[in-house]
């Protein structure tokens, strides 16, 4: 999860096999205890008081490739995804790094 202020991008939270890593202690107080990072509307609203724009970024490895790619997602799709689980998704044709929707989990 990334906070954006102008041209500056700041990692707020990262979720991985070892759990949720909090990059900013103030933001960490907003998170509910959970193995999988999920952001509700009230947490997002509070984060937007610190960062004008919030980007939900996920790292996905396509089944046909060994390379891991970065994709942007909506908050809803970000919350649906789980670390280590297989997901089928569709990207926008105009923006290949933006998930249009999760098709199947």
Structural features, described:
The chain has 105 residues and is α+β, with helices and mostly antiparallel strands. It has one domain. The chain contains three helices and eight strands, in the order ββββααββαββ. It has helices at residues 25-28, 41-47, 75-80; strands spanning 2-5, 8-11, 13-16, 19-22, 53-61, 68-73, 88-91, 99-104. The strands form three sheets. Strands 2-1-5-6 form a four-stranded antiparallel β-sheet. β5 and β6 form a beta hairpin. It is globular, with a radius of gyration of 14 Å. It starts with a strand and ends with a strand.
**Total number of beta strands:** 8
Integer tally of domains: 1
How helical, in percent, are the residues?
A: 10-25%
Q: Could you say which overall geometry the principal axes of the C-alpha atoms support?
A: globular
Characterize the main sheet: 4 strands, antiparallel
How many helices? The count is: 3
Assembly state: single chain
Percent in strands: 35-45%
* Terminal-residue CA separation: 21 Å
Structural class: alpha+beta
Spans of at least 5 consecutive residues with low confidence? none
- Rg estimate, integer Å: 14 Å
Strand order within the widest beta sheet: 2-1-5-6
What is the structure about, briefly put?
This protein is of the alpha+beta class and 105 residues long. The protein has helices at 25-28, 41-47, 75-80, and strands spanning 2-5, 8-11, 13-16, 19-22, 53-61, 68-73, 88-91, 99-104. 16% of the residues lie in helices and 39% in strands.
List the helices and strands and how they pair.
Elements: E1 2-5, E2 8-11, E3 13-16, E4 19-22, H1 25-28, H2 41-47, E5 53-61, E6 68-73, H3 75-80, E7 88-91, E8 99-104
Antiparallel strand pairs: 1-2, 1-5, 3-4, 5-6, 7-8
């Amino acid at each position: 999860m990334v906070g954006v202020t102008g041209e500056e991008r700041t990692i707020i939270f990262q979720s991985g096999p070892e759990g949720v890593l909090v990059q900013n202690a103030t933001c960490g107080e907003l998170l509910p205890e959970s193995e999988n990072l999920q952001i509700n509307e009230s947490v997002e609203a509070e984060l937007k008081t610190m960062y004008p724009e919030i980007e939900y970024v996920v790292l996905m490895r396509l089944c046909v490739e060994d390379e891991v790619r970065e994709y942007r997602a909506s908050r809803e799709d970000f919350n649906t995804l789980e670390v280590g689980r297989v997901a089928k998704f569709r990207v926008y044709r105009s923006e290949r790094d933006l998930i249009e929707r999760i098709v199947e989990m």
